[in-house]
Amino acid sequence: MQTRRDVVTWLSALSLVGLARPLAADETAEDRAERAARDWLALVDAGRYAESWDGAAPVFRASVPKEQWQQALGAVRAPLGPCLSRRRVSRRLVDSLPGAPRGPYVVIQLASEFEKKKEAVETITPALDGSWQVASYFIK
Predict the structure, then answer these.
(1) Which domains does the chain have, with CATH numbers?
(2) From first to last of its 140 residues, what are the pLDDT tens digits of the chain?
(3) What is the pTM of this model?
(4) If DSSP states are collapsed to H, E and C, what string results for the chain?
(5) How far apart are CA 44 and CA 31, in angstroms?
(6) How far apart are CA 19 and CA 97, in angstroms?
């Protein structure tokens, strides 16, 4: 039978184990937002435009009808060919965006290379609404 002292000792040791984790192992909000953005981009890269709309943030879905999104994205992305690489250029956490509800948002810029366009910049902005979901996407 455990005594109160044994339980307190066990709980103290358990809390120290949690504190002993390296701080770098903790995923930041920016990391989670970027992971969500890259998962969303995988849908776009696979030509699953309808699913990308379904998985986008409510503010995104409210701004563009699904059919219009599919047509516009197909017209822009198909001529580029497959994405060969992406490298993060910048990433910043912001509280607000012009014309959008209060955030938080993470604005991510990626230097991207496509089969038929060697230098492109993708700007993808996830919003936190329970989970990180893409609120906007631009490519130039």
Answers:
(1) 26-139 (3.10.450.100)
(2) 544 444 333 333 333 333 333 334 468 999 999 999 999 999 999 999 999 999 999 999 999 999 999 999 999 999 999 999 999 999 999 998 888 888 899 999 999 999 999 999 999 999 998 899 999 999 99
(3) 0.79
(4) CCCHHHHHHHHHHHHHHHHCCCHHHCCCHHHHHHHHHHHHHHHHHCCCHHHHHHCCCHHHHHHCCHHHHHHHHHHHHHHHCCEEEEEEEEEEEECCCCCCCCCCEEEEEEEEEECCEEEEEEEEEEEEECEEEEEEEEEC
(5) 20
(6) 36
